[in-house]
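S2.1 Query sequence (Papain inhibitor)
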Amino acid sequence: MYMKMHLSTTVLFVLMSIISHISCSSMTVLEQISKLDDLSPAEQRLERRNRFRRPHYRLEENRFHSCEFLRSINPGASDYCGFATYYKTGLGSCGQTHTDDDLIAAINAPQYGVYANPNTANICGKCALLTSNEGKTVVVKIVDRCPECSFGDLDLSPTAFKRLLPLDAGRFRVTWKYVPCS
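Output structure tokens follow.
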């Protein structure tokens, strides 16, 4: 009898602790869940994993604005919208080797296309003007393919990424369009 009562009290205490924790922080949890709802399942897994890997960067309200919102604050600044991330550069799918200091990008696989020889892709060498929600811009040259990126996403060199936001941001929504290379 004592064992059952002690166990019941312990379970009740744990449940009350959980409920009080949820009620105190339910707004942030709900906000975080709603931000993750716009992402594909693969992007959600990546975002959850990255939350524990990088220092927390307080730009949550701005990083995940919808594409419609970004287009409304920068009219005419984009043809495409997606997430910007960064990667370790090197030999790209277009057959050229680059460094992290170059202003380059890997475009998502759907927009890269399928070629018997990826070095001959029509997209290789084109330039894109990216605009962040803060109005910062950078022109990058497309030299690689990002197989895990969704349509509209770009994977940037660290230097290109830093022109828009600090690397701590990890990923954020960006609008972009093709422009002539200078």
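Residues 1-37 form one domain. The chain has two domains: 1-37, 41-179.
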